[in-house]
Design brief:
Radius of gyration: 34 Å
Distance between the termini: 68 Å
Mean pLDDT: 81
Number of strands: 6
Largest sheet: 6 strands, mixed
Order of helices and strands: EEHHHEEEEHHHHH
Helix content: 55-70%
Strand order of the largest sheet: 1-2-6-5-4-3
């Protein structure tokens, strides 16, 4: 799908207007790619090219046209999100964006631009970067919220009132959530790296050089990325601590289960031994002739189980 800014009016056979300053290509067709090449001399990269991780593939200069790409994230409201490889092509005449997913940042900028007709391509590019950074901050805030909730559940909730299986289920769910938060935060950091490089690339390589307010906004983007990168590093430390703590708590729960089974087995051994002895039915076993021999055997079994329990309790094992 091809979106032009200013928007096309009337029947123009889907051609870009002469004063077009932004072309937004969403999963473009071959005809749309050919249109951009014929109208602006721009080679629209395929999705596979946008997914390249080498810096030379993400940032390159061909004549006076800057080709850039970054792995953006689509979706911040819940845990479902996807990596969206996105291309940014900046020429003196037009800004071209290539994407294969709906991105909230683009929708916001499209709503702001509306039907404006007097913007420069670099202004559109800078505004897109600003909105992308804002959305990336939303991803980090979402991940930080997950980690804060997990900290509350692991370290501050009343754990004594829960059953053992409930406690283990809570810890398992916590590990799953913080794993998702860690994955999202790491991908946001990679996206920051790409956006920061793009901002610096435009300031250094674009001709004529970006100056004045736009240069200050690009510098602000780089400073925002640096501060958010520090926040992500701090968040990664908290996530690692939480993962280690949750795993340790799970090990403690497993040790408690093993200890409980050990106590039960040890407590059950003496009564079985007593029952085994009196089940031998030897001819010369005086207790078999006692009137109270059976109650005596039952009491002896109970005492043989009770004494280990008292010893375990005195040691603090139960």
């Amino acid at each position: 799908m091809l979106k032009t800014f200013p928007p096309i009016s009337g029947d123009t056979n889907n051609e870009a207007p002469p004063n077009c300053f932004w072309l937004d290509l969403v999963d473009p067709s071959k005809d749309e790619v050919a249109l951009v090449r014929a109208r602006f001399g721009i080679n629209v990269p395929a999705r596979s090219a946008l997914e390249e991780i080498e810096a030379s593939s993400r940032l390159r200069l061909e004549g006076d046209i800057l080709y850039m790409s970054a792995p953006l994230l689509a979706g911040t409201a819940n845990e479902k999100w996807e990596v969206a490889p996105t291309g940014f092509i900046l020429s003196p005449e037009c800004c071209v964006t290539v994407r294969f997913a709906e991105l909230d940042a683009f929708a916001t900028v499209i709503g702001e631009i509306g039907s404006k007709e007097d913007l420069e391509p670099v202004q559109v590019f800078v505004r897109l970067l600003e909105e992308v950074v804002d959305r990336a901050a939303d991803h980090l805030e979402h991940a930080s919220g997950i980690v804060s909730d997990a900290f509350q559940a692991v370290f501050f909730d009343e754990r004594q009132k829960r059953m053992l299986n409930e406690d283990t289920a809570m810890l398992s769910e916590t590990i799953r959530k913080i794993g998702q938060a860690s994955d999202r935060a790491s991908r946001v950091r990679y996206m920051f790296l790409s956006i920061g490089r793009m901002a610096g690339f435009v300031m250094e390589r674009r001709q004529p050089k970006v100056a004045g307010e736009l240069r200050g906004r690009l510098e602000a983007i780089r400073h925002d990325i640096a501060s958010l990168d520090e926040f992500e590093a701090s968040l990664a430390g908290r996530i690692q601590l939480l993962q280690d703590a949750a795993t340790s708590f799970l090990s403690i729960e497993q040790n408690d289960v093993v200890k409980l089974l050990t106590v039960v087995s040890v407590v059950g051994v003496p009564p079985v031994l007593v029952a085994g002895i009196y089940g031998m039915n030897f001819k010369y076993m005086p207790e078999l002739g006692w009137h109270l021999g059976y109650p005596f055997a039952l009491v002896l079994c109970a005492l043989s189980a009770l004494l280990p329990l008292l010893w375990f309790k005195r040691r603090g094992w139960i």
